[in-house]
Design brief:
alpha+beta, 3 domains, 10 helices
């Protein structure tokens, strides 16, 4: 018969390690905001939950107006670590295991809690120390007592100086971190966070989202396996491809970016493509201790499967938004390419060319050359006579630029038809330069070269110049392809043509 052996735990070490499970000090110190929100949600919610961080070189003081605990409640909470009563409440709670009170272990060496449950009650003083399995209970002296119900936490023996402009607990860093972590409650007006450091106040605000909203059909998804459980989403389209989608529990981010989830399939689809920014709320999931992720139970598997089923719908909308954004971007590229080509063709080395309409040079000042009034100067040797050649209207056609497939196939880079320079989207050079992973300056250079090519060919009636220029472009891009050399925009910063 097997012999049973009782497992014993060094409580002091276990508590210290529980308080150091967080990804970083910012994650640890945010636990006291979570505790404040949990207590606020159990109250009457007559006013927002207000949390204030006072950062000093040697200590951090955290105060909030949510009701504190009585001595008996505090003692009961400390005797049920990792078996918190929170998970049995009807009110949604951020905390699940009652270990957030020990988060000071990742920040400092001790924490003193001043707690007042209701008006007229005494302020309870509880001291916790690293590497200690005991809590010290006392009644706060008058000069330390709280005037109103709430909680004050003083963390001492800091491992990091929070007054420094850079660091895991810097005021600017905490403001940004809190704004992202508690975005939901901040936007709804449930929460106000103020950071006081070096005599300067930092008001935490949710980051503004200036993006078009998408995924309206996915705002409420019944979880697979149990339609009573709902997954809620708020999604926006990020044309820059830098968006992140986080998973939240009770409004607080747990998984900061779906791209960090490996081996689930989500990281390969539209949810984690970067073109989607937003939040997924799933309160039926169970966060891991220190909220470093979620328990991978049946609920988690069904959550993942629900998102995978919705992925084709999201992917279709993302692709449509990307196409529209590309058209807007192309319009801007067209404008820049025409302006840059005009600037180059205005230079002295091209002044003998007749420009396309819309790129025509402004008339300069009249220069006296010595000829008699009304007598035209003789044209330079080799110049085409306007009388003998093409009789073009002085106004010319306004130049436009568009990208379109040529019916005759991929042979030509471009053509000039009815005032429009048309780039052939079937040409291999176009597909490499315009659709490849290169920067915007590469695309600008390609479009500008085509405009320049058509402007030069416009001056030739035989058609031979156009053929030679086509071959020259093919040679140029073949050299670039083999050597990795960049075709850059001349003069000025890349992508920012010099103004005329």
């Amino acid at each position: 018969m097997a012999r049973r052996v009782q497992i014993r735990v060094d409580v002091a070490n276990a508590l210290m390690y529980l308080g150091q499970l967080y990804r970083n000090p910012s994650e640890a110190i945010k636990e006291y905001v979570s505790n404040a929100l949990d207590e606020w949600r159990k109250g009457d919610r007559g006013s927002p939950c207000r949390v204030r961080y006072l950062l000093a070189k040697m200590d951090i003081t955290i105060s909030y107006n949510a009701p504190g605990m009585t001595e008996k409640e505090f003692e009961a909470a400390l005797q049920r670590v990792a078996d918190s009563a929170k998970r049995h409440l009807d009110v949604a709670q951020i905390g699940q295991l009652g270990i957030g009170v020990f988060a000071f272990n990742q920040i400092g060496s001790s924490a003193v809690f001043y707690s007042k449950k209701a008006p007229g009650e005494p302020t309870v003083k509880v001291t916790l120390r690293r590497e200690s399995a005991e809590a010290e209970f006392d009644t706060a002296p008058k000069h330390e007592a709280l005037n109103e119900p709430g909680m004050r936490v003083v963390i001492r023996g800091l491992l990091h100086d929070p007054t420094r402009p850079r660091g895991p607990l810097s005021p600017a860093g905490l403001r940004k971190f809190f704004g992202e972590k508690f975005d939901s409650d901040l936007r709804q007006g449930n929460l106000e966070i103020t950071i006081d450091a070096n005599g300067k106040l930092y008001q935490v605000k949710p980051a503004p989202i200036m993006l078009p909203q998408i995924g309206k059909a996915l705002q409420e998804l019944p979880a697979r396996g149990d339609v009573r459980r709902t997954i809620r989403t708020q999604l926006w389209f990020d044309s820059m491809g830098k968006g992140t989608v986080s998973i939240r529990h009770s409004g607080v981010g747990i998984v900061n970016d779906l791209k960090g989830l490996q081996a689930y399939g989500l990281e390969e689809g539209a949810w984690a493509s970067g073109y989607v920014h937003g939040y997924i709320d799933a309160d039926f999931l169970r966060p891991l201790p220190a909220r470093g992720g979620f328990e991978e139970n049946t609920d988690w598997v069904e959550f993942i499967e629900t998102l995978l089923e919705a992925e084709p719908t999201l992917a279709e909308e993302v692709e449509r938004q990307r196409s529209e954004a590309q058209q807007v971007k192309l319009t801007e590229l067209q404008r820049q390419a025409i302006r840059l080509a005009s600037e180059i063709l205005y230079s002295d080395q091209f002044q003998d060319l007749e420009l396309l309409g819309g790129m025509r040079r402004e008339r300069g000042p009249v220069v006296q050359t010595g000829e008699k009034r009304g007598q035209k100067p003789a044209p330079p040797a080799g110049a085409r006579s306007q009388d003998a050649g093409d009789k073009r209207s002085p106004g010319g056609l306004r130049v436009n630029y568009e990208e379109t497939p040529f019916p005759e196939g991929p042979n030509l880079h471009s053509a000039f038809v009815a005032g429009t320079i048309r780039a052939n989207t079937l040409h291999p050079d176009y597909r490499r330069e315009m659709l490849g992973p290169g920067p915007d300056t590469q695309k600008l250079a390609y479009a500008t070269l085509l405009i320049g090519k058509e402007a030069v060919a416009f001056n030739d009636k035989s058609g031979a110049v156009n053929q030679f220029l086509e071959r020259m472009l093919s040679f140029l891009f073949e050299v670039k392809s083999r050597t990795g050399a960049a075709v850059t925009t001349p003069r000025g910063r890349p992508g920012h043509p010099r103004r005329l």
